[in-house]
Amino acid sequence: MRVFITGANGFIGSAVVRELLDSGHEVVGLARSDAAAVAVQEAGGEVLHGSIEDVEILTRGVEDADGVIHTAYIHDFAQPPEVAAQADRRAIETLAAALEGSGRPLVVTSATGLLGPGYVATEEDRPRVTERSHPRAGSDLLALELASRGHNVSVVRPASSVHGEGDHAFIPTLIETARSKGVSGYVGDGSNRWPAVHRLDAAHLYRLALEHGHPGSVFHAVADEGIPTRDIAETIGRHLDLPVVSIALDDADEHFGWIAMFCAADIPASSALTRQRLGWEPVHPGLIADLDAGHYFAHTPVA
Predict the structure, then answer these.
(1) Which residue of 147, 159, 183, 197 lies most exposed, with the fewest beta carbons within 10 A?
(2) Going from the N-terminus, what domains does the chain have, and what CATH number goes with each?
(3) What is the pLDDT of residues 19-63, one digit of tens each?
(4) Interacting residues of 55 by C-beta distance below 8 A, sequence separation 6+
(5) Predicted confidence band of residue 267 (pLDDT cuts 50, 70, 90)
């Protein structure tokens, strides 16, 4: 297949590009910058310059593609989250419109963390859209609505922590927080759980979803169903030789900054139905084993 992929140079997207090329597919990657374009070309893909905010560019990318994978998302914490969520929904609508009537697949990215706290979320669950929910939940619901209207759209929901070399999200932030504060912290008793998946296992699932998904299918890229955050903090503390301490919920914002709400969240998720439906089985290290591999701690922090 000739596959158009947004976010081709992202942490997940670049792994998806490699997975597709290694499996014999052709790839056209959307690249916002010259550096991103070079990375896509060096991986062996073709480049389409532009962003997900450019309707004309997205439509052009779809024209000669046999399938589309949408992994891009604008992670700009300087703007209200609704701005990025609106851009994401417009991109999904544009891609679906360009594919309309063709039967060609569109795989959209969501997240298991959007499904609500306190229970093990499954592929059958839908985001609970409330005043307090993250606006990105609307993208998940939009994709499923498009499928109900005849579009060949499926959804991949990666775990809250997608890990591996090159990670620059939750886990590196926790590590740098521990370094700067002199303690490795967790909120409350640390029993709240995070699901996790290695980026290469997630990439494999995207390919399977593209090749074998059906309209309205939902797949969970989850290897570790729910790791207690205290276990994560203890592993970080052991590697940095720092005390491991509980942080009161009222003090979490001051201690953890922007990541505080995630540190307190209990958001486990299952991938049992995904494994049953696609035969997907994670083969790469789990989160704790990946931390113990040492690469997360290899760099010297800036003083």
Answers:
(1) 183
(2) 2-161+198-223 (3.40.50.720), 164-195+225-268+286-297 (3.90.25)
(3) 999 999 999 999 999 999 999 999 999 999 999 999 999 999 999
(4) 90, 94
(5) very high
Say which residues have a Cβ less than 8 Å from residue 144's Cβ, sequence separation at least 6.
126, 153, 155, 216, 218
For residues 112 and 161, the answer to whether their CB atoms sit within 8 Å is: no
Other beta carbons within 10 angstroms of residue 77's beta carbon come to: 8
Q: Is 65 helix (H, G, I), strand (E, B) or coil?
A: coil
pTM here? 0.95
Letter for the amino acid at 267?
I
Residue 139, exposed/middle/buried by CB under 10 A (0-12, 13-18, 19+)? buried
For β-strands 193-198 and 161-163, DSSP reports them as parallel
Are the C-beta atoms of residues 170 and 232 closer than 8 Å to each other? Answer: no
Q: Which of 102, 90, 69 is nearest to 142 (CA)?
A: 90
